[in-house]
Amino acid sequence: MSRVHLIDHPLIQHKLTFIRDKNTGSKDFRDLVSEVATLMAYEVTRDFPLEDAEVETPIGLARTRVIAGKKVGIIAILRAGLGMIDGMLKLIPAAKVGHIGIYRDPETLKPIDYYCKLPPDVSERDLILVDPMLATGGSATAAIRFLKERGAVNIKLMVLIAAPEGIRMVQEHHPDVDVFTAAIDERLNSHGYIVPGLGDAGDRLFGTK
After folding, report:
1. Where would you tag: which of 51, 143, 146, 150 has the fewest CB atoms within 10 A of its CB?
2. How far is CA 199 from CA 23, 28, 54, 58, 134, in A?
3. Catalytic positions
4. pTM of the predicted model, to two decimals?
5. Using CA atoms, how far apart are residues 81 and 87, in angstroms rounded to an integer?
6. Measured between alpha carbons, how far is 160 from 87 in angstroms, rounded to an integer?
7. Which runs of E-coded beta strand occur in the chain?
8. Nearest CA among 54, 49, 19, 50 for reference residue 36
9. Within a 10 A sphere around the Cβ of 48, how many other Cβ atoms?
């Protein structure tokens, strides 16, 4: 069964409070989402392997360590996942970026895909799939399936807020994919929104309704 990593760092929890606040405007919302994505990236990349290295400082030779040739891909679930990309790239600037377009049918709540553009070597990369919300789990589960169908092997899912229902769906369909989240909320409502959640992340990022 995949593991769920709850990232409860005080800075993340502080910023998440303002992300949830309905009075936070689009600009501040975008900035906060990007900042939290940067902070969460520290935990998501914690298990990257290191190898020994040597550098010469102004004083002498230092035996140090560097990341061991990791090839990383950051995959955004459109459109709300776009708000997390810049924050991730601040820490992993060499990462390749992919996009998967999925929308949720308002009647059935089932995911419908419309776009997929990925780095050509996804099978060789450690992939971090990002989306602010893990609600029903349908979009994330479908996106992970798309990645696996194209050869991806090492996948992590990173979200700001998760519902128990979404976590269960990901664990049921993709037990090899770990979930990283800053909060696990109460439940979903009848419209498939997380309670208390933060509303529609895409609308709040881009000022749409």
Report:
1. 51
2. 12, 15, 49, 52, 12
3. 104, 108, 200, 203
4. 0.91
5. 11
6. 13
7. 4-6, 50-56, 61-67, 72-78, 96-104, 111-117, 126-130, 133-134, 154-162, 178-184, 187-188, 194-195
8. 19
9. 12
